Every structure is written in structure tokens, then in C-alpha cells.
Amino acid sequence: MCKNHGIAYKGTGEVELKEIDYPKLALGDRKCEHGVILKIVASNICGSDQHMVRGRTTAEKGLVLGHEITGEVIECGSDVEYIKIGDLVSVPFNVACGRCVNCKNGLTNICLNVNGDRPGGAYGYVDMGGWIGGQAEYVMIPYADFNLLKFPDKDQAMEKILDLTMLTDIFPTGFHGAVMAGVTAGSVVYIAGAGPVGLACASSCQLLGAAIVIVGDMNQARLAHARSFGCETIDLTNGIPVEEQIAMIVGIPEVDCFVDCVGFEATGHGANAGKEMPAIVLNQAMAITKAGGAIGIPGLYVTEDPGATEESAKQGSLKIRFGLGWAKSHSFHTGQTPVMKYHRQLMNAILHDKVNIAKAVNAEVISLKDAPRGYEEFDSGVAKKFVIDPHGMIV
């Protein structure tokens, strides 16, 4: 039997590489004939993983991390009809059954059958059904015919694997945020956060035809990288109100569309620099989005945040100025991304050279044993997206 190794949450601020069980085609005590086992080609470190590692969730020690999985099929259950051994596939981070009413309506992010505690499942993530993560050498994927996106040409896919591995989460998530914010040809967009999701969203806005894409952050390296592929940027450390900086770029202190790519671990700026303010981005969105505009919120918000400084925030209760959003008739779009809604179209955009998402997020390949270093560097704020290559398959 092959051995397997994975990256596990060790405790606040720590992950470790350890030997884990080789996956079986099983769900608990019963066979999983609709599943496959993948040899992992790439598995990325996500900002959502960092929330757990920082101790900002109720994740238990020992959890094997990783929900951004691309791999080669090496074993199929007897009920798998259309996916074959040898196929190179992208795995949506959403675990979805394909059978429930939500899946049938395209809401694979809130599948009703893959998590006993709440709608929606994900690999290697707290409170998302207990599915084993994919920052490992091998992983089991259930409901394979429904979930997996097969790349049509394996050799072509390997040539573009750094771009294609972003289809599991970050690219569809950024794209979803843009779509939900109403981005279209000629839009003026503000994206809060220049981390990998924010940069993926910026690239998505360009793909959708936005006229001006503005990215705001306090991290100078990330802002510089956003400018490198045509974004306008706002430096939240310079003391100038966001509205004024918006007006300097577009002539008026408002935008058509707003995308929150920060989430609950937001901090203040200006007079509130360094202070945890989990609702600041949401309140900013309502202040600078035009009346009748839409606000996409792919940034993560949680029901429990044990590391919060305020008691209310520990229960996911935030102080937002909702009356302003109501008065301006804003539309708010929240929740995890239904990856399957977008990944095939975005795959085609990559394969036909319409977008270079790996460049936009500044992807860097690391080995599985170097993953702890990747987590440490990512947490320090480097302008990179770390792609784990467990088997040395990425040239």
C-alpha cells in the first residue's frame, strides 16, 4: 500500500507535514463506489486556510488542510461512468452530491447532503463535513462524475497547470464576486483587498470588460503587483479617506460595483490603524457604492471567531450600518462560491489564452515539505499564491 503524507493544523500559527492514511473509496463504514482516488498534481494554500491556522476558527488540531485540489485519477469506484483512470481533473472546493434540490439548482455551495451540521461541504475545512483535505499526496473525491472537471487535453493542461489549478477556488471565487457585484463592460469597480482572491477578482473584472478596476489594501507589495497588470490602487495607509482617493481616480467619490475580498479579519486604517474592525469593509462598501449598486462578498465571514477582540464578533455578530445600504437600495450577495457554475467557462478562457490568472495572483510552486514555510510567508503578507506540488510534476 502506498504511503500518504499531508499538511495538518497543529495549533495556532503552526502546521506540520505528517504521515496520514492512504485514502479509501469509503464513506465511514460503507463503500463509496461513486468516488475516485486522485494523485495530487497541485494543491494551493488559501487565505481561508490561514484563518484556521491563525486560530480564528474552531478548527481542531490534526485537521488535514487543503481545498484547492487538482489531480490525476488513479482509481475509480464501480459506479463512476464518465471519469476514467488517467484523467487530469479540477476539483471544486465544494463537496456536492448532485442529487439534492440545491445542487440541481446550481447551488453546489450549499449542498444538503454532504454535511451533517449545515448546508455545504468542503475539503479540509472546519465545520464543512469532515472531508479530508488535499494538501497531501493522495485524496478521495466523492460523487466524481458530478464534481470533477476533466481537462480535455492532458498535455495541454499540464502546460497551463499553474493557471488551471486556480479553477478549484480562487479564480471562480474572484469571478463570482465580480459577477454578483454586477461587473460588466464599462463598469467602475472597487475591490477591497489585494490578496490572492482580490487579485483574482481584479483579473476577473478585466475579463468581464470593466473600464476601471481599483484595488485597495495596506500591503505595498500586493498593491504594486495589482498595478503590474493594469489595476488602479488605493493605499489605505496614507491617511486619505477612501472616498477622496476614489474621486482622484474617477472624478466622483463612488463606484458602480464593490467586491469585498477581505472578510472578517479586517483591520482599520487612518485613525483606526491596526485595530480589528471586522465590519469596516462592509460599511465602506455601502458608503462608496452608488445608489442601486451591488456588493459582492466572497470574503469569508464566520459564525464563530474565537480570536475576535469583541464578544459580539466572537459569535459572528458585526456592527454594520445596514440602514445606509437599505436607503441606497444596495444588493448584497454573500456565501461560498458555487464553483461549478463558472469553472468550465473559466477553463476555456485559460486554454484559449484569454486570461493569465497565475500571473495575476503571482503563483509560486513549492514542495509538500516546504508547505509550512509557504504558510509562514503567506501569513507575513507576501504578494504570492503558493501552489504545492507533492510529486514534482510541475515543470
Automatic annotation (TrEMBL):
Keywords: Metal-binding, NAD, Oxidoreductase, Zinc. Residues 34-151 form the Alcohol dehydrogenase-like N-terminal domain. GO terms for molecular function: formaldehyde dehydrogenase (NAD+) activity; zinc ion binding. Its EC number is 1.2.1.46. InterPro entries: ADH-like_N (IPR013154), ADH_Zn_CS (IPR002328), GroES-like_sf (IPR011032), HCHO_DH_non_GSH (IPR014184), NAD(P)-bd_dom_sf (IPR036291). Its cofactor is Zn(2+). SUPFAM superfamilies: GroES-like (SSF50129), NAD(P)-binding Rossmann-fold domains (SSF51735). PROSITE patterns: ADH_ZINC. CDD domains: PFDH_like (cd08282). Gene3D superfamilies: Medium-chain alcohol dehydrogenases, catalytic domain, NAD(P)-binding Rossmann-like Domain. Belongs to the zinc-containing alcohol dehydrogenase family. PANTHER family: GLUTATHIONE-INDEPENDENT FORMALDEHYDE DEHYDROGENASE, ZINC-TYPE ALCOHOL DEHYDROGENASE-LIKE. This is Formaldehyde dehydrogenase, glutathione-independent.
